[in-house]
Amino acid sequence: MGTPLQRWILLICGCLAFASLAAAVWPSHARSAAPLATSGLELSRLDADPVPLEVLGGALDHRFAVVPGGVIRETGPRAGWWRLVSTHAVPAQHQPYIVLGTPESARIEAWLPGASMPVVAKTGGVDIPSGFSSRASVVPLRDGLRAGHAVYLRVGTLAPVAMAVGIEPLAQLHHRDLTYVAWRAASLVGFVLLMMLALGFWLGIGERGYAYLLLTLAAQLAFFATQGGEIRLLPGLSGLLGEDPRSPILTGLLASGATLAFLAHGLRLRDRNPMLWRIVAGCLGVLLLLVVATVAGVTRGVLSFGHAATLAATAALLVACVRGTIRRERAAGFLLMAWLPVLALLVAGRVAELGLWVAPAWLGYALPAALVLAGTVTMIGLTDALQKVRRDRDRVSRLATFDTLTGALSRPAMQERLSAAVTEAHRNGTPLSVVFFDVDRFKRVNDDHGHRVGDNFLKFIALRTRNRLRTYDLMGRWGGDEMVVMLPDTRLNEALGVAENLRSAVNCRPLSIDDRLFEASLSLGVAELAAGESVEHLIERADSALYASKTAGRDRVTGHDPRITGSHPRFVATSGQT
């Protein structure tokens, strides 16, 4: 079942999902009690769609069948008539309103007692009464409602719906609207901030995952702003998305498709789970076809097919997340932790929109809030993935920069630093010297005692010599047992003294390897950078000085002075054994 971390992630995600679903299915009357009791409302349905005059005249009252539970359920697309009767009087001084938790796909017409024209109640950002949010459809009962008097409702919908019906006083209605608006405003601001962060990371880092997250958040923001009516606050988009009843359907399909595609990309579903990828790809294809159908004006059955495709793809992605978390894939763990509560709320909302149960009022703002949280966790996951890539890159870079045996710089890294130092020395006119040394009779150590002893030999010598260098000196392994030391801002005479310290650091006492003592010594060559000299020529002169130390008997330091030319010897300041 993976590491303890993966098991904890699965446990936490399972608890979050269970809590989300438990809160969603918990009866709404157990969470809040209305001052005006709604248990006295009798709801009945007429399985027909006659002309309004026949219904309002009371001639068809005997055909209305009582529906328990106070929930309007319509399967569409034919409109249905509902009769709402209060068994007790609802006084007008409370300023009561009929409240219907209406999805954006429904259209409701209400005939109050004695009225000849209906009151049209509609959500989805269209026809919202002034002073109210899009949380629910409301019908004012300005004269109250007498006991036994009926309110007739005609409900038409593009897809199956389930709507709770109740009566609330204006004060409670405004209180719940303010709570709804506050949560939605916070969620929408969260969307905008996350989009700005994703845009900044994408432009600054160039990681495509942030671009995909940005598109997903933009699609979700468009859907929730269209569904809730906030899109009407933007003059440029008000006429385009704020008034067309197809807008919530279209943006909802696009948001679902963008979210599913982003999760599939984050899980690398195409490569790691081809079978699940085919399921998700098929569902995305269905959503794309439904988008085209909605644009063309075909809306019948679109929501039902869209919800079914979304639920199928969600199940496939959930399986992929769980599998990936068990296989210790960090990306899958982050996505599961971030999106499982969202998927739970999404499933709850889709099931409610299919008319299978009544969604609680808070689901309208819980889902966008959960999406903001999911976006935040996903951004953390993307940053974690980038940090892992950076750590791996730094590790590879370190392996390429440093010699793993001695800890000294590798030859390419040393050449790069020497080249930069030589260029700077020529430009600023500062001195620069190098020390070139190798281990005396090192081949004999390998031949007589094996390469393991030889490797330890080099480790100890590198450690002893590195401890004698200044903080700004650099040492690199040139090849085999050959080492190069770069001494910035150092003249030849001072460099000879540093080289002598390196020599004495090695031959001062034997090396202890595998409980045996080995004598060790170095032969060193020193050269100072001449005017206009290249790195290659500088190393060549230091190598020549090293060869002179070898020829003179080893365990000594020899310096190469380019100012001594012609018939004079080129090597100076020889020190060491005689």
From TrEMBL:
Keywords: Membrane, Signal, Transmembrane, Transmembrane helix
Taxonomic classification: Bacteria, Pseudomonadati, Pseudomonadota, Gammaproteobacteria, Lysobacterales
Start and end residues of each GGDEF domain: 430-562
Species in which this protein is naturally found: Novilysobacter luteus
Spans traversing the lipid bilayer: 181-203, 210-229, 249-267, 279-298, 304-322, 334-359, 365-386
Protein name: diguanylate cyclase
EC number assigned by the record: 2.7.7.65
PANTHER family (alphabetical): DIGUANYLATE CYCLASE DGCM-RELATED, REGULATORY COMPONENTS OF SENSORY TRANSDUCTION SYSTEM
Catalyzed reaction equations: 2 GTP = 3',3'-c-di-GMP + 2 diphosphate
NCBIfam families linked: GGDEF
Biased amino acid composition, Basic and acidic residues: 554-563
